[in-house]
Design goal:
globular; six-stranded mixed beta sheet; about 850 residues; 6 helices; mainly beta; 61 strands; single chain
């Protein structure tokens, strides 16, 4: 639902009605087509729309002709159930359309109230496009792509419609996914080209042209995901980018005109300048200015980190490109001249993945650049000077989502203000120049950057990825600490890296505790991972000191970070009973550090649902520390309930310790399945304070380590991108949400189901082994294999350590004639070294049906 922020409302109904008449706007779904409102698009989008597509126009300029004017209205927020990573589009009547990772596509009224929504079968990670009025259908059609591998062509009517009336047609990719991908999700933003042809790219590597009636016109198959919005040049030429390390141009028939190799993924949508130059960013950290005929570099400009978002182009009064604006994951917004020289750089302090957009200033010929940052702030920057005009913090005021504030979506400019979505799941509306007219603690009108002109210190980074000058709240005693080095000299941000033969030597803790550290591949971040639980209710000082280097400069840093751990007490709300075990729903995973990870998979992490059930829990020892073992499976949502997903990609153990309600869990040497294949994790930690309601307090830590050489399909690029440190480790840090699992059967003893037999055949050096669980069903009982997941877990009976196996991939569920689960088989690869004594669990979803020791 929409939530207004402030005291004054939008214009009165009479004023809005008069304005609508003046502008000639008629609500979508009207019987007669409205007259165009003067935006003069050169492709058949809705002509009265102020922002009909992700980059607004066919050149992908990201520029709006609307002049800023504050009209007295207030900001509002509309909350969805998962993150928003796409750009909203805006109808001619002020309706706002946006998709969410919660699988829904939303249509909102101008005041932020829900008009209608459509559930798809997958995440929505890309922007829609609003087409021209269709006189046959009597509507402005809206096209949107989804992670269920379908494009949806919808009636834009404002009234609620049954699903079969709302959906005009659906289109499914005709080609299988390219090598390196397992899915055909539609994650490329939809664009409408000449003649109404619909263009979109997908994760499977296809660049598609689709007729307005929903049939394929042509397909160009790239080598990997196409996430960009095409820009349209003369003669029907389209310009794209792909994760296969190419920017490319296609002719009007979809045939390649040129393909230009770039040393990094291209997720940035190309933009075409007035002289035909094609501007595009890439993960090679550079903005490229390409020759439209050949794809050759006219020039390139290097930033300090990879470029995820798209460039915006400003034009002078004669329509000539006068400036290019681009954001970088180094946290800065850059303004460049058409010759590639720097005009100014503004540092927001945290990664920018949002694509900047340009609006007109209230008076004169000035312009304003708007962009979102990972710190949750929407910035309005004076286009001429590079100074902050204002910024507005969209971060929720309290709760777990306060640390889930990345604005990785891009802004859209409407008639009255700016719209932008965030990882917190809110769509935010901020009126033009609101912060210049109203007192609001979320507004900041200081002209300078976030961290001043002279900085040389290490900062605390929240699990959600926000750089803070100091921890503003207590930290869980079960935690992983993230720190970041920032060096600024004379207003210039240096790409400074921490230098150390052993990063443990950089850290000095008081009171002391045992820990291990990992540097990020670029040396900007240092992760401090305590070996155990810190002392509760204790003040700590962490001194981080050493050398930094940023060629050709170098220096030293020495910073002491102070924080207090949360008080002790409480009880861990997880029990192991005969007929039910305590269980958690784990969701909305985020790994914002290093910056590369959310750039390639943030919406994927955010969309995961897991169920974790307790298999074993010991009583606390004399130090108050107990041990716990949990089993995790992938989950699905159905009818308001969370159920185990037999087709999910996750099934693995978590083992850890607890003291009171502080808990740290670890999965070591497990394979997790992703859309591109299994990733073997050396370590995966979940840490934090677990409340009685099953929710971890804000500040819960998610931490992972991967050996770069073992990542399938992408290991080479990890080296190229510089995210692997000298120990060949990609260390990542983040957070997650949880809740008590209830209302579903996954953690309960299934009625009538029991374990009949559990056996183990040990593997040899050359012959595979197998663990098998045979199940028994009482007469009349059912346990459908299509709805439930059976698993077997093997432990070292002496230490309690899980045996390192890819449990999800190696497990087979066998069903009987009636479709019920009757047998669970775990293949054990040849050469696997099993402990002398093995303890095996047979598990139904996350409930332990039984266990047995094997010698």
């Amino acid at each position: 639902m929409a939530r207004a922020i402030g005291s004054m409302g939008r214009l009165g109904a009479a004023a809005l009605g008069a304005l609508a008449i003046v502008l000639g706007l008629i609500a979508p779904g009207a019987i007669a087509a409205p007259k165009p409102a003067g935006f003069h698009y050169d492709v058949p989008v809705q002509q009265s729309s102020p922002w009909p597509e992700m980059r607004r126009d066919s050149r992908n300029s990201g520029a709006s002709p609307i002049r800023v004017r504050y009209e007295g209205d207030d900001p509002w927020l509309f909350r969805t159930d998962r993150g928003i990573f796409s750009t909203p589009v805006i109808g001619g009547d002020g309706s706002v359309y946006v998709g969410s990772a919660d699988h829904h596509f939303y249509a909102l009224r101008p005041d932020g109230r829900l008009r209608w929504k459509l559930r798809t079968g997958g995440i929505i990670d890309a922007a829609a496009a609003i087409g021209a009025y269709d006189s046959r259908l009597h509507t402005f059609p809206i096209t949107i792509g989804s992670g269920d591998e379908r494009l949806y062509h919808l009636r834009g009517d404002g009234r609620r419609l049954p699903r079969n009336r709302r959906v005009i047609w659906r289109f499914r990719a005709s080609a299988p996914p390219a090598t390196g991908q397992l899915v055909n999700w539609w994650e490329g933003n939809v664009a409408i080209g000449p003649g109404g042809t619909i263009y979109a790219g997908n994760t499977g590597g296809g660049a598609y042209a689709i007729r307005p009636g929903g049939t394929q016109r042509w397909l160009y198959q790239a080598g990997n995901s196409v996430w960009t919005t095409p820009a349209f040049g003369p003669g029907g030429v389209t310009y794209w980018g792909s994760v296969d390390l190419h920017a490319f141009a296609l002719d009007a028939a979809g045939q390649p005109k040129w393909s230009r190799t770039v040393a990094g993924y291209v997720t940035s949508s190309p933009a075409i300048g007035s002289d035909g130059t094609v501007y595009v960013g890439a993960f090679d950290r550079q903005l490229h200015a390409l020759d439209p005929a050949t794809g050759a570099d006219r020039w390139s400009y290097a930033t300090g980190e990879h470029i995820y978002g798209s460039p915006a182009l400003a034009s002078d009064s004669h329509g000539q490109t006068k400036a290019i604006y681009i954001g970088s994951a180094d946290g800065s917004l850059y303004a460049l001249r058409p010759d590639g020289s720097l005009i100014w750089r503004y540092d927001t302090g945290d990664p920018i993945r949002s694509s900047p957009v340009i609006g007109r200033a209230p008076s004169g010929g000035g312009q304003i650049v708007y962009v979102g940052s990972s710190n949750g702030k929407l910035y309005a920057i004076d286009a001429a000077t590079g100074e902050r005009r204002w910024s507005y913090n969209t971060t929720p005021g309290s709760g777990a989502l306060r640390d889930r504030n990345d604005l990785n979506g891009s802004p859209a400019l409407g008639r009255h203000g700016i719209y932008i979505g965030g990882e917190h799941g809110y769509l935010a509306y901020v009126p033009y120049d609101y912060c210049l007219h109203r007192r609001d603690s979320r507004c900041d009108r200081r002209p300078g950057p976030e961290f001043g002109n002279s900085v040389n210190r290490v900062f605390f980074v929240t699990p959600g990825g926000t750089t803070e000058r100091r921890p503003k709240r207590s930290i869980p005693a079960a935690t992983v600490l993230g720190t970041r080095l920032i060096v600024r000299q004379g207003g210039d941000t240096k790409a400074a890296k921490m230098v150390a033969l052993d990063p443990n030597d950089l850290v000095h803790a008081s009171p002391s505790f045992r820990f291990h550290t990992q540097l990020s591949g670029d040396g900007h971040f240092l992760f401090i991972r305590p070996d155990g639980l810190l002392k509760s209710g204790t003040r700590y000082r962490i001194r981080v000191a050493g050398d930094w280097a940023a060629a050709p400069d170098s220096g030293k840093f020495d910073t002491t970070i102070r924080f207090r751990t949360e008080p002790g007490g409480g009880r861990l709300p997880l029990t192991v009973g005969q007929d039910r075990v305590g269980a958690l729903k784990i969701s909305r995973l985020a790994l914002p550090l290093p910056a590369l990870l959310p750039s390639v998979n943030q919406i994927g992490f955010d969309s995961y649902d897991l169920i974790a059930g307790a298999l074993r829990k010991t009583k606390p020892d004399r130090n108050g520390v107990g041990r716990i073992l949990m089993w995790v499976v992938g989950a699905r949502r159905l009818g308001g309930r969370t159920l185990a997903d037999p087709r999910g990609n996750f099934a693995f153990p978590l083992r850890g310790t607890y003291r009171g309600n502080q808990m740290m869990l670890n999965a070591s040497q497990v394979n997790l399945q992703f859309s591109f294949g299994p990733v073997p994790l050396r370590s995966l930690d979940f840490r934090g304070r677990l409340r009685a309601d099953g929710r971890f307090d804000p500040g819960a830590s998610l931490y992972g380590q991967v050996t770069c050489a073992e990542v399938p399909n992408y290991s080479f690029y990890l080296y190229v991108a510089g995210v692997c440190n000298p120990t060949d480790t990609l260390a990542s840090s983040g957070t997650f949400l949880s809740d008590r699992y209830r209302g579903g059967p996954a953690n309960r003893r299934p009625p009538g189901l029991s374990l009949s037999r559990l056996s183990l055949v040990r593997p040899s050096a050359t012959v595979a082994g197998e663990a098998t669980a045979t199940l028994r069903l009482a007469r009349g009982a059912r346990y459908p294999a299509a709805r439930h997941l059976g698993s077997i877990l093997l432990l070292d009976a002496k230490s309690g350590e899980p045996v390192s196996l890819d449990y999800r991939t190696l497990t087979s569920n066998r069903k009987g004639p009636s479709g019920n689960l009757r047998r669970i088989e775990l293949a054990i690869p040849a050469g696997t070294a099993l402990p002398a004594r093995v303890h095996a669990y047979a598990i139904a979803d996350v409930f332990p049906l039984g266990s047995r020791d094997f010698k």
